[in-house]
Amino acid sequence: MSDVSDFSEPSDAHSFRNTEAADRRLRKRHAAERRFRFYGAAAVSIALLALAALIFDIVGKGHGAFQRHVLTLQIYFDPDVIDPRGDRSSQSLRMGNYTSLVRNSLTEIFSGATGRSDRRSLGSLVSTGAAFQLQDMVMADPSLVGERRLVTVPFADDADMYYKGYIRADTPEVDRRLLDTQIAWLDQLERRGHTHSEFNANFFTSGDSREPELAGILGALTGSILTLCVTLLLSFPLGVASAIYLEEFAPKNRWTDLIEVNINNLAAVPSIVFGLLGLGMFLNVFGFPRSAPLIGGMVLALMTLPTIIIAGRAALKAVPPSIREAAMSMGASPLQVVLQHVLPLAMPGILTGTIIGMAQALGETAPLLMIGMVAFIVDIPSAFTSPATVLPVQIFLWSDSPERAFVEKTSAAIMVLLLFLMAMNLAAVLLRQRFERRW
Amino acid sequence: MSEHIVKSFDEELERLRGAVQEMGGLAAEQLELSLRALLEPDPELAEQVVEADSEIDALEQRISQDAIRLLALRQPMAVDLRQAIAAIKIAFDLERSGDLAKNIALRLPVLKGFANRGTLETVARMGELAGWQLHDVLRAYSGTDPVLAREVWLRDRQIDDLYESNFRVYLTYMMEDPRTISAYTHLHFVAKNIERIGDHSTNIARSVYYLAEGVPLDEPRPKGADAKTAYVDPPAET
Amino acid sequence: MSADTKVEARDVSVYYGKKQALFNVDLDIDSRQVTSLIGPSGCGKSTFLRCVNRMNDTIEGCRVQGKIRLDGEDIHDRTLDPVKLRARVGMVFQKPNPFPKSIYDNVAYGPRLHGLVSRKDETEELVRSSLQRAGLWQEVEDRIHEPGTSLSGGQQQRLCIARAIAVRPEVILMDEPCSALDPIATARIEELIDELRENFTIVIVTHSMQQAARVSQRTAFFHLGILVEEGDTEKIFTSPTDKRTQDYITGRSG
Prior knowledge:
Order of helices and strands of chain B: HHHHHHH
Structural class of chain A: mainly alpha
CATH topology of chain B: Methane Monooxygenase Hydroxylase, Chain G, domain 1
CATH architecture of chain B: Up-down Bundle
Number of helices of chain B: 7
CATH class of chain B: Mainly Alpha
Number of strands of chain A: 3
Oligomer: heterotrimer
Number of helices of chain A: 19
Radius of gyration of chain B: 20 Å
Shape of chain A: extended
């Protein structure tokens, strides 16, 4: 016991292993391990809880946006109102006052509302989109003029909010956006069965709008898809090629070291700087169009490139050298070694890196603000150069809007963004599984 | 020779060498004692020699077993391999030598009353020579000395020559007096045994030489007179 | 250089950066024989092996001096492309390294690469005969399209040998081909090496002296980058001339 360095006496060793102190040490070790496990589990639980809270909050706020309330009205397509020239020509029909059709129909229900202001507040219950809807119907089928039809039109956002319970009748009139009379009408409409709620397909089929009940996500979604296409098409080949060159072919000298350091630094550059670069280079110097997915994609590609290069290099480095040696010893040229053996094995890793980069790009707003993709754009972009916005910018815009109805739109848009992200990840997982092989 | 990394390997090899040396000492002693018993004559000593042979046999058994174990477990290479093989071969030769010494001792009852002191002493001198050979070859073994081994190998010729001349003498005596045929035949066997022990020493010398040098000792050896062709004309009938 | 010298190394020195790994090695490797290179770790035996098919070229900072001739032709000659050289000098590695492809594609890779086969039936025939030569055919016949990595270690190594011999090389270099295998698989490989000796010149690096003794006809002992002794395997293992060889093969610390 006195001489620790003496290994010759096993009975000695036996004795110092069985002392009280040794037992205490052992107990302490086990306790430390248990504590550590507990901390780990706690950390994971906290993260999960936060995630669950986030999702609960978003879904709770946003699920309403997928429903909307509509009003079924008996519309009389009054020739006097919608066909001022009386010749049923499209020019004439386009000049018609379709808003009046709705108001007339409403006043038919509520015969008491005859005053100007009553008529206006009654009419404002229905979305301004209703007039466009009726016009479209008539333009498509002029024979409707003079007929009576049951037409379903959306409510305005405030009415919708009332039905969804966000505007309450028991708050003082001055504090809410609906007048007492309007609330009375809405209640009546509901009682008489003129209203029902339906799936809000409009949210997925239309672009942005000033009117919350008409605003949809499609424009931003399309913009995001177009932008990401450009990003992927630019950054993936460039990134993979750079990674392959740097990892497999470039001589190891001070230049390549410098390049490596710079690529690593680039990955950490704030994204807004890339936006400024895009603004300065692409818009001001080359004169590319503003707000275009093409430019957005180019800027995001610049931002994604370092991520892909770094992930790609790591993946290439992780391919066992034995495979390289095997291919080389069979007489494969360096390029064949890389393309036929190393790259396929590195693909899963490269794809992971790419997806991380793309997910980052998908959620990026700051650089796009700089190149004008923050504009209010109603049309759904149809080309890489047409003005567009992207999902996160759309979310930002909506969250900034004062109307109560945009709150649920914002959350709904976040849900769409998350779903898009999940779809991308799923695609990546599927691709990875295709490439993944044991070695 | 530097030491093995595995110490127990060195110990095993050393034990093997020690056993061979011990066995060599025993065999040489057996030869010496059997010759003394013959000269005295001392039947008790002869008895001792006969009994001691089993000790040599047992040693031979042990050496070959140890060597086989060494081969199987250590897979020795180069000099270690030669060491193990040499031990087996030398042990075999020593065991044969021991047997031959015992054989000499066994002939004592027949030769006890043997009259011709001179021939007996010549045989003993031959035996002494064989004993030196054995001693030298064992020295060569313990010192792994190829030069000495080669000397022993060359010197065997002297024993062969002596044996050959003795043989002629015996033939002559036997022809002169047929009553001595029995005794001389036995004496001849004794001489033959001694000559065989000399041959085993040369075998050992070859083993030692190969052990030391790694190449077999295969230069042509100068051959002495050959007893196989010794022939003496019978005296004319009178 | 004698008539049946296949590979002739003269004054070969190898440097890794500033460190010299091999010092002026002169070694003749006979045709259709197995030559084993033995020696302690880091003695330069693998380095020498990798000079013969110029695998050292791929290592950054590695410099080879001296001449290595294959059938009298300098392998460092500008006119000889390393790709062509490697078709003539195949290699089998320490760790079995089949490509993560099917067994069939593993074997067919080299012949396709070097244009040895053009039609499908030719490829199939070559794959079959190569696997047969490697003694693997019977074991994999009915799962030839399964991944090569699904085989056992010994089978994988034989697959690598089949892959190497499929391009009909003249020399096969083996870098400790059995060090990752169990004794039975090792015995199979050794038996295979003995059979292949009829048609190929084989150079094998091994840490197992017993293996060198079993499979090779010639043995070269390397120590600290120097070729210490070279000769008939029997001679090296029964009575080596050099003390360093003796110490190494008998397990002495020297």
